[in-house]
């Protein structure tokens, strides 16, 4: 497997003119700053989120901060299968006019997980539903569209949001919805083990089926709002939060910097399916290629997680069709 180029400079990205990217959870945090970096590099960016006012604020902020940005918004709640399917359908229509979808950054997530177990409207545990199941369905919905956009010089990408927390303990995902023994931290770490396992299993299945789409995983280290630039409507930490987050300066970074690994995973030409990127110093630093945790790379865990996600979402990835259209 080729190594990601060590010379990557997040401040000077390759020109992305003519490419279209979808970012989930793009109205704030890492998703917003990744979208901003993609737009600054000339890409067309579709900001998606679950709330129209928050999306409008992010849209306005991005246009104000990036002269000439090409950006649009799309309502998409990743815990709602109907919303995912509706957004994917309208996306397919719009993208046909535009011609292509070059990458999806599957970023939306809950970081501060609820203390007590909560469920979505359709009865699924909230954290796994937001962080993993929704994007599993989104990947299935957009796979053929992505494959259609493959070109001689470009393999479209799906980028999954992993976490360094997956290195803390084994957290083998046996009970995805934590029907018993729910704890906030456990729900988060397990959901990220699941996301990483899905990203690696997707890579294996895409290769086996000959689909010209790459599945890549990125993690942002430890990126916090109080170390991040103030952007009206997007990032407005209180003075107390800025002070508190400032105390973590030696090991925390801003969300702008956290987005570097995500953006590299999405556009560095030397990144390949199955690659795993994160900050050089684990919690912070320039994005480099790393090794995912043992549990999420275990082929047996990966297979089990994939099949369980198929069962829970009643959704299967259309590998054969994507391989046909991608030829
Ligand atoms: N920050 C870190 O240090 C860190 C570390 C490891 C991994 N990550 C991962 O990076 C991703 C982004 O984290 P962040 O720090 O940027 O978090 P954040 O600032 O809390 O932003 C989360 C984003 O996800 C959106 N979201 C939440 N639930 C959603 C839903 N049901 N449908 C659609 N969008 C939804 C939020 O939208 P609303 O504004 O509507 O809530 C928001 O735009 C997450 O997957 C997280 O697990 C972050």
UniProtKB/TrEMBL annotation:
Pathway assigned to this chain's UniProt record: Steroid biosynthesis; zymosterol biosynthesis; zymosterol from lanosterol: step 5/6
One Pfam entry name: adh_short
Range of residues in the leader sequence: none
Lineage: superkingdom: Bacteria
Enzyme Commission (EC) number: 1.1.1.270
InterPro entries in UniProt: Ergosterol_Biosynth_ERG27 (IPR051593), NAD(P)-bd_dom_sf (IPR036291), SDR_fam (IPR002347)
Enzyme class, first EC level, given as a word: oxidoreductase
SUPFAM superfamilies documented for this protein: NAD(P)-binding Rossmann-fold domains
Name under which the protein is recorded: 3beta-hydroxysteroid 3-dehydrogenase
């Amino acid at each position: 497997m080729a190594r990601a180029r060590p010379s990557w400079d997040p401040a000077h990205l390759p020109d992305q003119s003519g490419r279209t990217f979808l970012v989930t959870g793009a109205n704030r945090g890492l998703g917003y700053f990744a979208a901003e970096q993609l737009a600054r590099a000339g890409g067309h960016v579709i900001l998606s989120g679950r709330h129209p006012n928050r999306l409008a604020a992010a849209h306005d902020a991005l246009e104000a901060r990036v002269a000439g940005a090409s950006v649009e918004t799309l309502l998409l709640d990743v815990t709602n299968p109907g919303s995912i399917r509706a957004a994917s359908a309208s996306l397919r229509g719009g993208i046909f006019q535009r011609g292509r979808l070059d990458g999806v950054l599957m970023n939306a997530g809950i970081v501060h997980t609820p203390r007590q177990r909560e469920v979505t409207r359709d009865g699924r545990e909230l954290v796994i539903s937001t962080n993993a199941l929704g994007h599993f369905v989104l990947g299935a919905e957009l796979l053929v569209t992505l494959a259609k956009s493959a070109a001689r010089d470009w393999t479209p990408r799906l980028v999954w949001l992993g976490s360094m927390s997956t290195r803390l303990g084994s957290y083998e995902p046996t009970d995805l919805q934590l029907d018993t023994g729910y704890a906030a931290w456990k729900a988060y770490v397990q959901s990220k083990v699941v996301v990483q396992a899905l990203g690696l299993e997707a890579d294996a299945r895409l290769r086996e089926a000959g689909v010209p789409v790459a599945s890549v995983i990125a993690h942002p280290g430890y990126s916090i709002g109080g170390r991040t630039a103030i952007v009206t409507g997007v990032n407005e930490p209180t003075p107390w939060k800025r002070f508190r987050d400032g105390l973590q300066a030696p090991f925390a970074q801003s969300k702008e910097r956290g987005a570097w690994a995500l953006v590299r995973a999405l556009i560095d030409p030397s990144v390949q399916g199955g690659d795993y990127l994160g900050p050089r110093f684990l919690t912070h630093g320039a994005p480099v290629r790393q090794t995912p945790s043992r549990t999420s790379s275990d082929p047996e865990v990966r297979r089990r997680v994939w099949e369980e996600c198929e069962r829970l979402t009643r959704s299967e990835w259309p590998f054969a069709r994507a391989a046909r259209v991608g030829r």
